[in-house]
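WARN retry 2 of 3 for item q-0093 after timeout on previous attempt; input resubmitted unchanged.
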Amino acid sequence: MKPYSSQTVLIQGGTLVTPEGTLEADLLVQGERIKALGRGLPGAPDTLVIDARGLLVLPGVIDSHTHIALDTGIYRTPDDWFQGTRAAACGGVTTVVDFATQFPGQSLRQAVEARRTEARDAVIDYAFHVMVTDLPPGREEELSTLRELGTPSIKLYTTYRPHYYVDDATLLRLMGAAARLGIRPLVHCENDALVTAQTEALVAAGKTAWRYHGQSRPALAEEEAVRRVLFLAAAARCPVHIVHCSTAGSVEAVVRARSEGQPVTCETCPQYLLLDAAQYEGAEPWRYILQPPLRAPGEPERLWEWVSRGAVDFIATDHCDYTRDQKTAVDDFTRTPGGLPGLETLLPLMYTGGVAAGRLTLSQLVSLLSANPARIWGLWPRKGALLPGADADLVLYDPQPSGILRAMDLHHLAGYSPYEGMQVQGRVHLVFSRGEIIYREGEFVGRRGRGRFLPRT
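OK item q-0093 returned
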């Protein structure tokens, strides 16, 4: 089935969902942009009319923490940008913000340009954060290049020695430069010394099977690092973003910093809201090897409380498409790649666990998955909005059907899902990207290479 691309599309009778509320109204698309919202909107003779009665009309989801075609220097996911963004489109994700890694010897410009070349087959729009791994003293001004390139955010790590790890002095130095040059750091927060010591103790005890993974990276290591990074960011007068908060304690630290006037944002992920460390005691703990790991039973509900109260700015997936074969090669958490597939399941899982479970309103869902990441990462109002002039990135979501999540129905390469067998409420019905239907009633109908790079402000 070919994609439909019309100059004019009229979506009639749906429930339009915005951060401010819901509206029973029509939505008119002209070309790539939203033209108008209202009741009884007229269409031209060649208008494609879509009956959206009973459906939710949402702005396209923005997953702003993904790792498509990831190369860590140790492990590599086998997906490419067509496969990764196809899976995203089938789940209602119309924009991803992924990462351009600065490999040894590269300039930041070379890192971004190389990643743009890799992403040329994307079927949805995309942007980049930049993983800074090689910026010694004296080269800080190179960060200003990132604003020119439309990638004004950098990823820093307090763990993963020696590949990505940066020490406190480097953190402070780079955050000071970022503050001066208008760049926002994202930080992966885990205390490397605590993780290393705990891992070494488990190895010495012969406890390297997958089931011990959660013990190797304790919650204390994350929460200490979050507090330390916030302290250093305050000293540098640098706005900062804390990625994949897996505990309520991490979010609480962010809330406390905000109350003291510090500019800080944070995210969490579906895995930390829907799964817990009991999974490591099950029959297939390999499904849940990720960093940070799943936390103790009860922690997801405490995290949901902060999400419901608006303390978490957005929800992203930290998607990594390692395959079942890669994950199950050896029952040893120290030799198993960390990361879970999740792009295609983000929206249905968060609708189910959030809206259908009574933890979120529809407006909160749209804020967490679309509007807030667009605002924070310099894409608003072109993305994440149901507003005239915004890109016509739309998801028509049917809230009525329920079903069981099965990996065989998904489009990523992993061959498994950490959410296998979970019941989900609702399903993606239609997906538009810039006015073009790219997913329709269970079938991907997009085109390889139609995605565009999005320079961010």
